[in-house]
């Protein structure tokens, strides 16, 4: 019997990468700021949790991973992280954002990322190490309590900082915390929650009907949407990546994705989505340079939708070419049917 795959997860990898690009380019600000807000600040905030959950799900879907398997996954992310740091090093030098202060180096490497989107890579590594160690010593309920506490600490320094910073003790705590990280959206406070949810779904079979999951998604999404609107009414927001309802909508949505099973999968999409995630800020720079060099700033830069499409197009083209180069000119088709176990 052939192995079951989850093609909808592969498709969602691409959609999530498109949403991440949208967050960083605001594609509809020239036409409809309200719709742009919905896409970037609501739908867009589901993308990174989805990536975390996907990583954990396929790491834990054969049971508790061995240390060797964990080490292999972390090594892959570490190599990608180092290559990404080197890729954006010239950009940092050019825009004078490179610092050699020890505290800044530590923050950039382990917390914030050396470029604004690269926080995700150390966050995956740190989050997986935390989760794996917790599983080695504690039961699942205790682990869940710990990741909830970590998430709540992050939440209070993120979307809810505006509500809580006036409390002296809380303000003092986060003043000290923000000396070692610019945001609480990192591998210590953000990643463990969604990695745990992915691992949890991998180890437990849920038999919810698809229509039940759709209902739960719609309810949790409406709560998530209202919460996001309320958060953005506040005068001070350190960030808006973490909300109370985000884990719920992420859990139900990922569960919904798992209901689509097949003997086929979209093999290419895993690497393509990762490469696009890494490359798209560089393509933003390229598109802006093209606009200035051709004196077409009103099209390449000011026209938000064209800017988004140009960045997206270049990101996918370059990503595909790099994968083609990596594979020696051979890439699987859109899907592959196989009985062999792959890494997803």
TrEMBL record:
Family, per entry: Belongs to the acyltransferase 3 family.
Domain Acyltransferase: 7-323
A Pfam family annotated for this UniProt entry: Acyl_transf_3
Name of the protein in its database record: Surface polysaccharide O-acyltransferase-like enzyme
Keyword Translocase assigned: no
InterPro entries tied to this protein: Acyl_transf_3_dom
Membrane topology, record value: Multi-pass membrane protein
GO function terms (MF aspect): O-acetyltransferase activity
Keyword Signal included in the entry's annotation: no
GO BP annotations listed: enterobacterial common antigen biosynthetic process
Highest classification ranks of the organism: Bacteria, Bacillati, Bacillota, Erysipelotrichia, Erysipelotrichales
Residue intervals passing through the bilayer: 7-25, 37-60, 72-94, 114-135, 142-163, 183-202, 211-231, 243-260, 272-290, 305-325
Keywords: Acyltransferase, Cell membrane, Membrane, Transferase, Transmembrane, Transmembrane helix
């Amino acid at each position: 019997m052939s192995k079951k795959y989850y093609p909808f997860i592969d498709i969602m990898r691409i959609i999530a990468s498109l949403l991440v690009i949208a967050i960083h380019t605001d594609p509809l600000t020239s036409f409809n700021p309200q719709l742009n807000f919905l896409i970037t600040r609501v739908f867009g905030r589901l993308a990174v949790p989805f990536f975390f959950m996907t990583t954990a799900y396929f790491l834990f879907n054969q049971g508790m991973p061995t240390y060797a398997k964990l080490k292999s996954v972390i090594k892959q992310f570490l190599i990608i992280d180092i290559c990404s740091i080197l890729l954006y090093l010239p950009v940092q030098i050019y825009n004078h954002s490179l610092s050699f202060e020890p505290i800044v180096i530590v923050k950039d490497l382990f917390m914030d990322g050396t470029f604004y989107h690269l926080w995700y890579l150390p966050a995956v590594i740190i989050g997986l190490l935390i989760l794996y160690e917790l599983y080695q010593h504690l039961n699942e309920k205790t682990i869940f309590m710990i990741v909830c506490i970590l998430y709540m600490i992050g939440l209070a320094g993120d979307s809810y900082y505006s509500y809580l910073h006036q409390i002296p003790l809380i303000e003092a705590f986060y003043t000290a915390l923000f000396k070692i990280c610019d945001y609480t959206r990192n591998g210590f406070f953000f990643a463990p929650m969604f990695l745990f949810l992915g691992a949890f779904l991998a180890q437990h079979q849920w038999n919810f009907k698809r229509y039940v999951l759709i209902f739960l998604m719609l309810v949790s999404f409406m709560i998530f949407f209202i919460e996001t609107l309320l958060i953005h009414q506040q005068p001070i927001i350190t960030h808006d990546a973490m909300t109370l309802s985000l884990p719920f909508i992420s859990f139900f949505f990922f569960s919904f994705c798992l209901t689509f099973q097949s003997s086929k999968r979209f093999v290419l999409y895993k690497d393509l989505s990762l490469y696009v995630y890494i490359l798209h800020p560089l393509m933003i720079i390229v598109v802006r340079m093209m606009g200035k060099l051709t004196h077409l700033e009103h099209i390449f830069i000011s026209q938000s939708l064209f800017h988004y499409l140009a960045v997206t197009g270049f990101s996918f083209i370059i990503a595909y070419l790099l994968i083609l180069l990596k594979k020696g000119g051979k890439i699987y088709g859109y899907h592959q049917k196989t009985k062999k176990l792959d890494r997803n």
